[in-house]
Design a protein that fits this description.
The chain is α/β, with parallel strands linked by helices. Helix content is about 30%, strand content about 30%. It has a domain at about 70-140 and about 210-375. α1 (about 50-65) packs antiparallel against α7 and α3 (about 100-110) packs antiparallel against α10 (about 265-285).
């Protein structure tokens, strides 16, 4: 039975899931008051689609504004302005994942060259056989950047009572949560549309044992060593005596890495070039995809695959009334995928307040999944 609660409202004291009728109408009652003494939302008879919309309302207040009938993504525009005002322009990797970008990424994961997804699934299947030995009953799974929720379904069993997917793409989390419900109708799914890299206030009445997931080697996608900040925020979100599974891509042969991030089918290129579409949609600019070229390489100095959009001509755009120039030959960084050794990730986890409890490899030792514990 799916249940929805607005995860961004402070301190919901109680909620009580009710019956689901044959038409899959979900009944939810939120009881108590919020921290600022405003009444909590009381809903009855909401369909699943409406509940997902409800979950996004508070985040949208911070994330979006309506200007002339058009929705503007506040954080995207503000961060773009900050990054495009610098000498070395960047677009944070989290902004890849609008609905179209998420679909392109799903295509990337099916390519022969992109080993990460199939390797991670191979390891998750091993872990699935050990889940009941590692944890007791009555678990809550919280997935940071849940995407299609395909991987988490490998681990779901009767021990898991709640699943809380956190994602920056509202359309994608909407679609994936409904698909997951079809396969696990007894699972209580509480989706939320949010910036999962920040601290998220979770509902109080979920299972006491919280198990987080940050898969897909996403821990490597932070610029300027911000992965440590994410791990600290995740620890704060999950709380003491919680767990976190983290997918970590290991340093390997350059040729293998570069093919994975620039496949012959061009899906990686389309994934990155889609950011031009997003800029045009949000800012009403008229940049053309043909005026950019996607390039990538493995930077051995920092052990990271870097992706860029290369400008093929002099161009300009306005962000919040500020004119931004992009010169011919200038590179805008759109992707970073940091690679680790076992030692380097253990140090990162320890410095972020986590203890390494266990880790698993694939056969080739290309990839590992760490299980971290927070005291």
């Amino acid at each position: 039975m799916p249940v929805a609660d607005n995860l961004t409202i402070d301190d919901i004291k109680d909620f009580q899931p009710q019956k689901v009728n044959k038409k899959k109408t979900v009944y939810v009652r939120h009881q108590g008051m919020t921290k600022n003494n405003s009444p909590t939302i009381k809903t009855k008879g909401l369909r699943i689609k409406e509940l997902f919309k409800l979950n996004s309302d508070e985040f949208k207040k911070k994330e979006e504004s309506r200007v002339g009938g058009r929705i503007k993504k506040i954080s995207f525009i503000n961060e773009l302005l900050i990054e495009f005002s610098k000498k070395n322009k960047k677009i944070p990797s989290k902004f890849h994942y609008d609905l179209k970008g998420s679909k392109y990424f799903e295509k990337i994961t099916t390519t022969k060259e992109y080993y990460v997804t199939r390797t991670e699934k191979e390891i998750l299947k091993k872990i699935a056989h050990q889940i009941n030995l590692i944890f007791h009953n009555n678990l809550t799974f919280i997935e940071f950047g849940s995407g299609s929720a395909e991987k988490i379904s490998i681990l779901l069993n009767d021990q898991v009572k709640f699943y809380v997917p956190l994602d920056i793409s509202f359309d994608f989390i909407n679609k994936s949560s409904k698909q997951l419900f079809k396969s696990f109708p007894k699972l209580k799914i509480l989706p939320t549309y949010c910036d999962y890299t920040k601290f998220i206030r979770l509902p109080k009445n979920i299972s006491k044992t919280k198990v987080g997931f940050f898969l897909g080697s996403s821990i490597g996608n932070f610029y300027n060593k911000k992965e440590k900040e994410f791990l600290k925020n995740a620890k704060k979100t999950l709380g003491n005596n919680s767990f976190l599974f983290v997918g970590v891509d290991l340093i390997k042969e350059t040729k293998i890495l570069e093919k994975a991030y620039n496949d012959p089918g061009g899906f990686a290129a389309r994934f990155n070039l889609n950011l031009i579409n997003r800029i045009n949609n949000e800012l009403k600019t008229k940049l053309k995809i043909r005026d950019f070229k996607y390039i990538s390489h493995f930077n051995k100095k920092i052990n990271a695959v870097e992706g860029f959009l290369l400008s093929m001509k002099n161009q300009e755009l306005f962000i919040n009334k500020k004119k931004i120039f992009i010169k011919k030959g200038e590179k805008i960084q759109t992707e970073i995928s940091n690679k680790f050794t076992l030692t380097s990730f253990k140090k990162l986890a320890s410095s972020s307040g986590w203890k390494v409890k266990k880790y698993w490899f694939d056969k080739k030792k290309f990839y590992t999944i760490f299980l971290l514990y927070a005291k």
